[in-house]
User: What shape does this take?
Amino acid sequence: MRDIIRGTRRFISGLRPVKVPEAPARAFRDLWPGDANRGARLLRGEFESLGTTHRLDPAGEGASGWDTAAGPIAWRAAAHGFAWLRDLRALGTDAARTRARDLAEDWLARGAEDDLAQAPEIAAARVSAWLGHWDFLAATAEDGFRKRLLVRLAQDARGVVASLPAEAMHRGALVTLKGAIAAAVALEEESWMTRALRFLPGELERQFHPDGGHVERSPAQQLLAMQDLIEIRNLLHGAGINPPAVLATVLERAGQALRLFRHGDGGLAQFNGTREEGSGLVDLVLTQGQARGRAPMLLEESGFHRLQAGRTLVIADAAAPPPARARDANTGLPRGADRYAHAGTLAFEMSVGRDRLIVNCGAAAGAEGAWRDALRATAAHSTLILADTNSSELKEEGLGRRPERVEQERHEANGAQWLEASHDGWRRPFGAVHRRRLYLAETGDDLRGEDIIEMQEQGAKPPGFVLRFHLHPGVTASLQEDDQAVLLRLPSGQGWRMRANGARASLEDSVYLGGEQRRNRQIVLTAEAGQDTVQWALGRVTATGPGEAAEA
Assistant: This one.
């Protein structure tokens, strides 16, 4: 570490003023599609990001969208990062181009000196966005605007390169490297490229587990990190530079890991800050990443499992949360890989064909604290919650108390699959360990589970607990008279029934933020204090007559 610090100081002291060109030396285009609906909202002065919307309007008076009071830090970071340019580009209109320039001018005048805007990962995201949208944003603009933009870009890039290696443990460090490489190509700064390439191999190994899973354990960040890798590869190829061999290896593994998180509809499972994401974008990323082959059934180091039989798919989280780190004292940005982590250890999702059946509630990482944390809570996941206490402590910058030991064991025989897992997230407050067993039959028509609270002190009795199974909004549910079963109907018309032993079944309202906020329902299995085991089963049913159903 001392060598890195000394090298950084020497690099900074040796930096010469950047010669600002009339235009970027090499043109490259942002690869990813924007969202025209979000672009239309930007035209109205509304910026939607990470599950929340606030004003971002260059014509606004008083406080601007760049101010500290404009919104939560995650939302403001996204605003300063300018990735929303692709949403305006998606509109393809002169009005969209004008709004992009007006917002950039407003940022130069009122947002550029914000401490958050100057954070390396935010500045790097902005450098990449400006260069990737140069034709849309600035190529035909008046000379003064282009010059102001390029001067600021060069200033930002100089600071980004000097900040390497990045301090963040999360994907922000990869974004910082990508911005440095993009600036080195566009401004023809060979020393910048040399420095970025020096740190790239080590960062790739730090960002990705050997199984290809990203360190944040988030399907959404897995997708974004793959996009970063593809852009870095393309930038280096376009500049005539051979990427380090580890880049191709990591990209291939990351693509396979991304496949594990896909449901039958092509979208992503909702763990740790993830929303569904459009299947089209996931397809595009896999194609651009040249990721071939079938989805793996488990990510050994990352701790995610995929149980699949017939048309039924279960995706389960069976590992400890990612590591923590103190937030940046100047900007308030989280630096740990747990920045978007949820208290959802041992949660699972289930789909049948293209229909999602059991889900987690989704995420709103850019929302105000109370709403954001409601979606991060254990109760917002399809798992067990003990005594209304989260399995991990939710904090602004990530997680506090958390499971320290998560064990998992998987078995397969004749097409049937078992997953046994446990976590000790409630050991400190209650002296308890949660054990979950999942069994998927070889036909895919029968999923069975057993949840156990194991007290570590001899003779101790567990407090009351509940199991929650959040249903996708497309699923209809009806409670059967004995309060021991719930009948479910999927959008395809297929029927399933949940039965429980050792708990009382009920139906409650829930909320779903896989995309736009929607109402849904959840099955709640309630175990009284002293009860330590609940068994449950989800089985496909077939209609046998009016109002009747039979097990398949």
